[in-house]
Amino acid sequence: xxxxxxxxxxxxxxxxxxxxxxxxxxxxxxxxxxxxxxxxxxxxxxxxxxxxxxxxxxxxxxxxxxxxxxxxxxxxxxxxxxxxxxxxxxxxxxxxxxxxxxxxxxxxxxxxxxxxxxxxxxxxxxxxxxxxxxxxxxxxxxxxxxxxxxxxxxxxxxxxxxxxxxxxxxxxxxxxxxxxxxxxxxxxxxxxxxxxxxxxxxxxxxxxxxxxxxxxxxxxxxxxxxxxxxxxxxxxxxxxxxxxxxxxxxxxxxxxxxxxxxxxxxxxxxxxxxxxxxxxxxxxxxxxxxxxxxxxxxxxxxxxxxxxxxxxxxxxxxxxxxxxxxxxxxxxxxxxxxxxxxxxxxxxxxxxxxxxxxxxxxxxxxxxxxxxxxxxxxxxxxxxxxxxxxxxxxxxxxxxxxxxxxxxxxxxxxxxxxxxxxxxxxxxxxxxxxxxxxxxxxxxxxxxxxxxxxxxxxxxxxxxxxxxxxxxxxxxxxxxxxxxxxxxxxxxxxxxxxxxxxxxxxxxxxxxxxxxxxxxxxxxxxxxxxxxxxxxxxxxxxxxxxxxxxxxxxxxxxxxxxxxxxxxxxxxxxxxxxxxxxxxxxxxxxxxxxxxxxxxxxxxxxxxxxxxxxxxxxxxxxxxxxxxxxxxxxxxxxxxxxxxxxxxxxxxxxxxxxxxxxxxxxxxxxxxx
Length: 673
Fold this sequence. Notes:
Helices cover 29% and strands 19% of the residues.
């Protein structure tokens, strides 16, 4: 009898404990469940039941909606409705922990219960994240894109930091996630992570020329701070910036740019911290906040405002009318009590910074003085297997005015940097491993630079000022998009040779300047929208593909009055993106512009009249716009403007590479590389 009683008692206690545990789980929020320590509970039937909900809620695109309590039981009707929504991507997001939390849960349960459905769903979520990323490295709040402020790059509520932390664990092949993607996917993840970090570096706000912190959201085109909801105005964020900095501090072997970003943000956090003030909350009988007020307290730990003016870091507060107020007391109860206006999250940055600084500030100086094994043959590799990890570091290590050529071999990778071949870096060869996979990219543009009327000339991704430069098998791009002037490649040097390169951008992709300077582009792809090949130098384009992305103008030469040649295109192919139907061959940036097309294939997107005077009647007399023996639907010599020319055979004879590019230098035939 005692034995039976003991068994009954044991069973009762076990059932009671199970009931209590179940109640504890069901009382938690979905986010707290996903954050639970891994263990046997994730092998329980309750966890499996929740996993079925997670699978049901996932859309076929791979993402999940936000603010769903995944652990709440579903009725048969609710399950049926969710199945019907599978093909609908609307509402999928990474906001408020959505997608991130579901992937985390699936990883934890898969470690205990290796159901292939969990793995498939996790990988679909990862693919969703990769597909949602902008080319500039940021992520929108919703994907597919949802109109409104939702398209902005969002750091709000640490959305992008959550994403990058997922990618970081996967690219580093840690054991944090139980589900391991393929090597091909891991390579995609590495690229996405690097682009994301680059976006963070580029969006760090400069206040009067000094780096500070970040806004909760940045415009997806300009990268500048921007508004979200009516009470979430463009500002510097004391909350979201904290997690961004902690992410940067967690990167092993950080670049100089990352080190600078962290150092600058730390200084800003120290500058704007609020002392001697405490937030006091008043609750009703049900535990709901019915009022908040700030009270003086000399012993209160530091606080930071969530919103600070871009101009002077002054905290501000808003109701739904979007009107800034100086104090929390000035806004209504609904927003005062229903929103977090202060934060203490930066305290973790201040706590961890001294140890981080001790480790990495010395590393920064070491990187600057690193020397290659061979001064004339250097290797740049993103993975650290070369002499340098950035192209600029290799350039900085190159000899000034060398007696022999300096070869910088660049291995495949996406190099998110502005590179500058200085005037003393003569005879440099930048040789990529492949045009398709060796990419130098940046996204400066006129409005972002904001240095006045000449801001265009500061936007280039690669600026060449060293004579006798050579580039082969490499892509140089400006990813700003259709936001105005944004140069991919600037060449302010002579005897520069480009072969099998891709120059990608929109307006002002390629700028070649320097009176009397001569340069050669062979078998290159050059694409853009407006005036995307412009400048005053003599340039010979041979066998190049010229791609127009919009209805606009290909060239804008500014040839000096007494210069024999401007832009000469020989045996090139002129193509266009879909729906582009009205493109001019060129217009004169300056009155004596010279542009010639010889033996080129012109697509039907070229306008019959061919050329435009840019509202400058004088240019019709002094410019020199010429064609000879071209082919294709876009070549309509009889329809061209009357002030353009068609060469005679005798006149065409002078358009040889020798006549156009000959040099008085010791390397007279420099173009024969």
